[in-house]
Structure formats: structure tokens, C-alpha cells
Amino acid sequence: MRSVLAGTLLLLIGVSSLTNAASPEVLTETDSVAIQAALRLSLRNPVTARRFLAPFPRQREGMAPGVSALPAMPTDGIIPTPYMTPADLHGETVGPVNSTRLWLVGGTMFAGNAAIMVYYFTTFYNDEYAARAPFHTFNDWYNADLNIDKLGHVWGTQSYVQALYHMFRWTNMQEHDAMYWSSGLALLYQLEMEITDGLYAKWGFSWWDMAANTVGAAWPNLQRLYPVLQPVMLKMSYHPSASVKQGWVEHDYLRDYDGFTYWLTLSVDDVLPENLRPWWPDWLGIAVGYGGNRTMLGKNVYNSAGGVGQGEQEWYIALDYDLRKLPGDSAFLRWLKESFNIFHFPAPAIRITPSAVYYGLYF
User: Fold this and answer.
1) Three-state DSSP class for 326?
2) 289 and which of 67, 170, 263, 296 could share a cystine (Cβ 3.0–4.6 Å)?
3) b/e sequence 277-293, b meaning 16+ C-beta within 10 Å
């Protein structure tokens, strides 16, 4: 769950970096052939390129109506997608990495990591959890947190990757280099946390956590490489649970496992047959949620027996919003929509287990 804090912090840092990016130049219609040539190099999907070119005039003076100033763009074998590609947001990478921006990104990462570690040592490695021990591993699969913690590791690491990727692209780093560095550094950061856990008696290095971290480090960039994966998202929602209200969880809210719900969401519009798409709002999706109840029985008393969680699993079906489909095509708005799309916002939902409950809005 600690990866949730890291991912959210890096997202906020990434937004501040993007606001400093330069605006793209405005090109005239006479440059249309050059525009297309550049986009062919920088965009994987010609359909996305066509969307990008929409604001530009598509006719020259004297041309017959309906005749485009741009040559035809083949789409054979291309899967149409409304989502942005990396080049759609950052533009074609030309020239070397901006060393000043790279130093700023490195300094920001260092400061962010230091701040998060201070928080962890204040909340997680204190009081009865402060006892040190030789490095050790432990098996925390389906313990008191009912594996909600594992989903938190996936979600937090993918958030970290997203923020780092865009920060590196802001430095003018090549697309694939930014992918490698963002996934690699996100995984390295989580490895740092697991090694630290392994040095405390009541914690331990978890291979299950590292497996979840690996999934989170890979997924965002796999979506960039394979647009067909982009309709599927892992999102998170949180509300303070009874454990917080009763004082069992005071300052370390990431231990409030009853309050977290993780959602596997699908953008329905992207999987519907073409003839049905006009009947479904493109921004409306569906989601399957997973959470828990009674993971704690008192302050620092977790509900498990023999290392196996005894709480209740909670499964949900809900509507979801794909923020990427909302209006607004500026670079900042596209980045903002992508960043906040990892959160599940209040929506109608049905809890399936342990008993049926209908919610007008659930978060």
C-alpha cells in the first residue's frame, strides 16, 4: 500500500513538470505534406494522426469541395484508437536530451524519495514495528489484508511509471528510452522498499510484493506499445473505513485496507461493434471492484489465523468514467486526463458479496 503514496506524489510532480513544456508551433496548410511525414514517423497509429491534424485546413484554395490537401493515409492492419500516443502529447523527439531538465527531474525524484522514506520511518517502522532483524523474506500471500495490499502495489507502481515516463519525455528523452527508464526506476524504487522491509522483524522481503510491482512497472508501457490494451485499466478508490473512525488506524491510512477498493475497468465503446457505438457514450465504462471488510479487529490487531486472512471479500460491479474521452485536446489537458484516469470516481455500483447492496454512488 505504501506504493500508493509514492505513485500519487509522483503524479503531482509530473503535472508540474508538464506545465513548463513549450506549446507546439502553428503550421500552415502548405506544410501539410511535411506534417504528415513527421506524424508518420512519430505516431504509431495513423488514425490518431488524423485526429491530431483535424484542426488544420484540409483544403487549399481552388480545390474542389471534399478534396483533402493531405494525401490519403492507409489504415490497413491498424486498430483504431482514440487514445493519445506518446508523440501525440510530447511531439517528435529531435535533438539531444535537455540536461538542465534532466537534472531537475533527477533532483525532484531524489527529494520525493527522501520525503516518502521519512514518512515511512515515521509511520511504518515505528513503535512495535521498530525492531530490527537480519535480512529475511516472508510469505504474505492472502494474509489479513486479503491481498488488497498486492493490488495496491500494482496500482502504485503503475502510477509511478506514468509520472516518470512523462517527466523523462519532458527532458526530450527518446520514447523507448523513457519507457525503459520509467519502468526500471519504478521497479528499483519498490525493490528499495522491499529490502528495507526485510530488515525489520515484523515486516519482511515479499516476493509476492515484487511480483505485483513487476506487473505495475510493465503495464503502462505495454499499453503504449500495444494500443489494443489501452481500454483496460486498474483504478483505485478510497473512503475512510470503520477502522479509521474507531481510532484503530490513526496516521498510517495506507493500512486502512477496508477503505480501499481496486477496480478493473473496461472502456466499453472500444470493444463494441461499429454499428453499436453510436448508442453508447464513449466516456462510460464498466468496472469490477474488489475490496475487503473486517481486516482489522482492533488497534494493531489484524484478522488472520495461521497467516491466512479471515475477513470478508467484497466484490462490486459499477459504472466507470474514462476521463481520456472527455473534451480538451491541449497537451496539458490530455496529460491531466490520463493522470486522473487511474482513480475510480463516485458512480452507481452493486456489491455482489458478501451480500447484495445497491449504491447510488460508491467511491
Assistant:
1) coil
2) 263
3) eeeeebbebebebbbbb
Asked if residues 135 and 205 have their Cβ atoms less than 8 Å apart, the reply is yes
- For 5, 35, 199, 246, 282, the CA distances from 155, given in Å and listed in that order, are 10, 37, 25, 27, 24
Distance from chain centroid for Cα 126: 30
- What is the SS3 assignment for 325? helix
- In this predicted structure, the answer to whether residue 59 has a pLDDT above a threshold of 50 is no
CA distance 77 to 54: 22
pLDDT tens, 86-109?
A: 444 555 566 799 999 999 999 999
d(CA 312, CA 304): 11
The amino acid at 6: A
Distance CA 328, CA 10 (A): 23
CA 108 to chain centre: 19
Give the pLDDT confidence score for residue 178 in this predicted structure.
Answer: 96
**pLDDT for 120:** 86
The answer to whether 216 and 182 are in contact (CB under 8 A) is: no
Report the run of H or E that residue 293 belongs to, with start and end.
strand 284-293
> Measured between alpha carbons, how far is residue 307 from residues 104, 145, 259, 310 in Å?
44, 10, 21, 9
- Give me 73's grid cell: 493515409
Extract long-range pairs of 99-106: CB within 8 Å, 24+ residues apart: 101/170, 101/171, 101/172, 102/171, 102/173, 104/17, 105/17, 105/167, 105/168, 105/170, 105/171
Contact in structure between 265 and 232 (CB atoms under 8 Å)? yes
The answer to whether 164 touches 182, Cβ cutoff 8 Å, is: yes
Which helix (H) or strand (E) element contains residue 213? Answer: helix 207-225
Grid coordinates given for 268: 466499453
